[in-house]
Amino acid sequence: MVKKSSRPSPGLVTSEDSLPPVRILVSWSPNSAGTEAIDFAAWIARTTPTQIRVVSTISQPLTVTSLSKLSGSYKKWFKKERAACEEAVRDALSAAGVHKSQWDKDVSVLVAGPSRPQLLEEMAQEFDAHVILLGANQSAPKGRFFSGSTADALLHYSPLPVGLSPRSIKLSKHGVTRINFAFTDRGADDDPALLRAAYMAHRTGLPLRVLAFSPEGLIDVPLDYSPTFPSDAPNWREYSLSLLDRAHDFIADAFPDLEVTTAIGNGNGWSGAVDSLKWKKGDLLCLGSAPMGPFARVFIGSTATELLPHVGVPVLVCPTGPGPES
């Protein structure tokens, strides 16, 4: 069952677009081996209005005292580094096709400290960012994502959605053309992350595809569902179809005009399950995260952790929170 959207077809963002900008904090440095994080931001900027700020970090051990930072030589060196960094950031954004109207006034910020994840979280809070975008670990195979130390840390405590990009992927010149949501650990049809993905699709006038993965049935099920689960493949498929049907109805009630489709990825292991589905250059995959205490923070579960290395499209991991617009 597909519900058609009454919104205009997606296309390039124009100056007439009245949507409030998405505030994007990009983690990228001139010495980065790739530009995936910049390209990710540019891809989003072709879809919806954005305000982009790029944060570059310098690793500085705790032994560097605040007193040494006050010295004239340090200030002179840092000022020179900041100017060079800003020039590189501006060049990278221009090369990626991001119009200057979508740059933040302080488009480049250089910060130093012992913890890169902590610096990014602090800068995101200062910028009032909606999302933090990370580049690819260059040790990953082309078209795949490996989680480095910074990504791993943010995926376990970031209060904001974290965007991840596979290495050296080709993205649609038309921006994001479809929002995808995949059930992982929680498997609840009213998952707040599903509602967030639906809101993003509604905001941009894009279709939403809701997915279930894994022939091994890693989606949560009631303990009394089946003593043979997940080896009972027909029952697993029946359960997954039921979950997707409930999710479809849940989204249809919240966003009646949204075009919603569902699909099941079934194959040999995670790679086979992911590859069994058709993916486009304009696909963005959204994943939820497990609850962690009373605060809304990303805490990626084991299933999503296993899934990520096999995904060949940009991913947005969302924290468990009260609502999609928060």
TrEMBL record:
Kindly give the InterPro entries that the UniProt entry links to this protein.
Answer: UspA
What SUPFAM superfamilies is this protein classified in? Adenine nucleotide alpha hydrolases-like (SSF52402)
Q: Which Gene3D superfamilies match?
A: 3.40.50.12370
Q: Which residues form the UspA domain?
A: 23-162, 184-319
The similarity annotation says: Belongs to the universal stress protein A family.
What's the protein called, per UniProt?
A: Universal stress protein
